[in-house]
Amino acid sequence: MGSFDGAETCELVGLFLLSQLNKLNIDVGLYRDDGLAVCKKAQTPKQIEEIKQKICKIFKNNGLRVTGEANKKIVDFLDTTLDLRKELYKPYKKPNSCVTYIHKHSNHPPAIIKNLPKGINHRLSTNSKNEEIFKQASTEYNQAVERSGYNTTLQFDKGKEKTITDRTLRPEETKKRERKITWYNPPYSKNVATNVGKTFLRLINKHFPKNNKLHKFINRNTIKISYSCLPSFKQTILNHNKRLLKKQKIENSTTPTILCNCRKRNECPLDGNCLTKCIVYQATVTQPATKKIDTFVGLTDNSFKTRYNLHKSSFKLEHKKSSTKLSEFIWKLKSNNTYHKIEWQILKKQKSYTSDMKYCTLCLQEKFEILKNAPTLNHRKELFTFCVHKKRHLLSNFTALPL
């Protein structure tokens, strides 16, 4: 499971567990897989230990295990140390960890580079009870900021010096109507001279003016732009090496890869490659009498032979003739008694959707091939179809394990 899906799952499971933990009459909070609970002062250490056992039981009833410590007055939670005895809180970082930030002249969006010192200062001030604690913690962070090329000294924001009770007493905010905003996140690079954001917003003004029917939905208030960061160069090299080593491992494997299991190899629809998976393929329908050629582009996440058998079934069984545009066309030729031949070929091999990538290169490749080759049997509306490979990663498709 990828990082995004893992975090989303933690949030959902955490909310469900919080609804059950509320019955224990304790103040409890969860962040991903970390939790913190505060008990009343009147409770004895033994009573607190019993509450801990009840928490463990709730987790166990839901098929989960939890490790906890009870009767602690000082805890390190996320990036903050909380001290109940002195009623203090201060920044926390793991022992022997080095504080490192991106350099001022690195290839990152200007907004990130500009706001980095401000964000560090804000976080340290928020996690510090008073200015004295801030100064003790800021030494190492000031050095890290200086190493990154900034001439900024972190200073305590005295507006943050409030008690926890004061922070919760906020005036009631008036409810504002939420506007549906679509974000465009192009990757940023200093090597690109074109102002992508400015050009993109100009295109919105040009193609969706006020007299356009779609202006209500596509305008400068509903479409926003924010630059995104590409993976680090180190990560790119690691992924490249991993891909090469995996390929080399397959080549050196003693077990041969079976690409075809047809009884008659000369009748294989893909010339001995019918078991290839995750491909974008093309079917070419030729009518010898008129020499007319029609093409159809499709994809399959399974082996091509599995998809090929489904195509053959739709060509033979009348109740399946509307399965694809290709089958509809074949049935049309059959009704006119038109002789035809079908040839198959692989256009591209790609990976389907995975939870770590968050996009499906297989579906994207199919859309690209439809645009590039302009097949006569495909509709343009296929360019806007939803990725079917994403559905199997939804939580609704997973069954709970027996307790």
List the helices and strands and how they pair.
Elements (H helix, E strand, L loop, with lengths): L2 H19 L5 E5 L2 E5 L6 H17 L12 E4 L2 E4 L4 E4 L18 H17 L4 H17 L16 H5 L13 E3 L11 H12 L15 E3 L7 H20 L24 E11 L4 E12 H13 L8 H11 L5 E9 L11 H13 L30
Parallel strand pairs: 6-7
Antiparallel strand pairs: 1-2, 3-4, 4-5, 8-9, 8-10
Helix pairs in contact: 3-4
Keywords: Kinase, Transferase
Organism: Elysia marginata
Protein name: Inositol hexakisphosphate and diphosphoinositol-pentakisphosphate kinase 2
- State the separation between the terminal residues, measured CA to CA: 22 Å
Placed side by side, the strands forming the largest sheet appear as 3-4-5
Number of strands: 10
Overall mean pLDDT stands at 85
Shape: elongated
Rg result: 30 Å
- Tell me the structural class: alpha+beta
H-E order: HEEHEEEHHHEHEHEEHHEH
Q: What does the main sheet amount to?
A: 3 strands, antiparallel
Strand content: 5-15%
Low-confidence stretches: none
- Helix share of residues? 25-40%
Q: How large is the count of helical segments?
A: 10
Organism: Elysia marginata
GO molecular function: kinase activity
Keywords: Kinase, Transferase
Protein name: Inositol hexakisphosphate and diphosphoinositol-pentakisphosphate kinase 2
Question: Overview of this structure, please?
Answer:
GO terms for molecular function: kinase activity. Keywords: Kinase, Transferase. It comes from Elysia marginata. This is Inositol hexakisphosphate and diphosphoinositol-pentakisphosphate kinase 2. By secondary structure, the chain is of the alpha+beta class. Among the domains are: 3-72; 269-395, no CATH class. The protein is 36% helix and 15% strand. It contains ten helices and ten strands. It has helices at residues 3-21, 45-61, 110-126, 131-147, 164-168, 196-207, 233-252, 304-316, 325-335, 361-373, and strands at 27-31, 34-38, 74-77, 80-83, 88-91, 182-184, 223-225, 277-287, 292-303, 341-349. The strands form four sheets. It has a three-stranded antiparallel sheet. Strands 9-8-10 form a three-stranded antiparallel sheet. It is elongated. The two termini are 22 Å apart.
